[in-house]
């Protein structure tokens, strides 16, 4: 009623896009369909071949040890088994500590924070996740393989020293390679498992 007309509000300047918005994903999620599309057979095979190569090495060495233990030893007097009690104890310690450490490190190396900053392109994001998982698989498999090979070496040495036959308990060291084969079977990455693992890690990357 006769007052001055209200001044129009000043136009707000457009907000600058966040740094790296064109390259890095902030709050978006990558679903299984995107992962499936961007997960090639070569990516899957490379991880599977790492696991299979380590299993094959243990399996072949175990076969050699079994064959050799069927061959009579030329040692006239069996060696004192005290050494093999110590070695067997060391192997048991490696088993008890190696497995928890292996799985702990796998979780640590594949923490979602390891994927930061997450690329915006699904193909790049999946590729980065696969690289992290591949390294973690190698570390975990190597730590699980150690006790397996050590146990076989103990059996091999005991046979060579003539201590295996009179001390059958030394065969308990064979539990290590058997556990390794079982653990590899449980953790072997099929395509479905790998897709689910990648999705789980990507979905937990902080915004």
Would you spell out the secondary-structure blueprint of this structure?
Blueprint: H1 32-38, H2 41-69, H3 82-109, H4 122-160, H5 175-187, H6 191-203
Helix pairs in contact: 1-4, 2-4, 2-5, 3-4, 4-5
Compact description:
The protein is mainly alpha-helical and 207 residues long.
Structure in words:
The chain has helices at 32-38, 41-69, 82-109, 122-160, 175-187, 191-203. Helices cover 62% and strands 0% of the residues. Residues 13-28 have low confidence and may be disordered. By secondary structure, it is an all-alpha fold. It is elongated.
| Average pLDDT score | 83
Sheet having the most strands: none
Strand content is: under 5%
Radius of gyration: 28 Å
User: How would you classify the helix and strand content by structural class?
Assistant: mainly alpha
Number of helices: 6
Runs in which pLDDT lies below 50 for 5 or more consecutive residues are 13-28
Shape label: elongated
Order of helices and strands: HHHHHH
Number of strands: 0
Distance between the termini: 52 Å
Multimeric state: single chain
Helix fraction, binned, reads: 55-70%
């Amino acid at each position: 009623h006769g007052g001055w007309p209200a001044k129009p509000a000043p136009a707000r300047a457009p907000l600058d896009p966040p740094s790296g918005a064109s390259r890095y994903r902030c709050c978006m999620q990558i679903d299984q369909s995107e992962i499936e599309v961007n997960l090639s057979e070569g990516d899957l095979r490379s991880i599977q071949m790492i696991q299979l190569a380590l299993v094959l090495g243990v399996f072949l060495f175990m076969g050699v040890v079994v064959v050799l233990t069927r061959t009579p030893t030329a040692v006239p007097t069996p060696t004192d088994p005290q050494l093999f009690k110590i070695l067997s104890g060391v192997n048991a310690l490696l088993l008890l500590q190696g497995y928890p450490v292996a799985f702990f490190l796998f979780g640590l190396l594949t923490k979602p924070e390891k994927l930061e900053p997450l690329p915006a392109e699904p193909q790049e994001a999946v590729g980065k996740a696969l690289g992290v998982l591949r390294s973690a698989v190698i570390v975990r498999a190597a730590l699980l393989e150690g006790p397996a090979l050590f146990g076989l070496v103990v059996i091999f040495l005991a046979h060579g020293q003539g201590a295996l036959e009179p001390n059958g308990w030394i065969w308990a060291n064979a539990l290590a390679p058997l556990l390794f084969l079982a653990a590899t079977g449980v953790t072997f990455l099929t395509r479905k498992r790998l897709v689910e693992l990648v999705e789980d890690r990507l979905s937990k990357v902080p915004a």
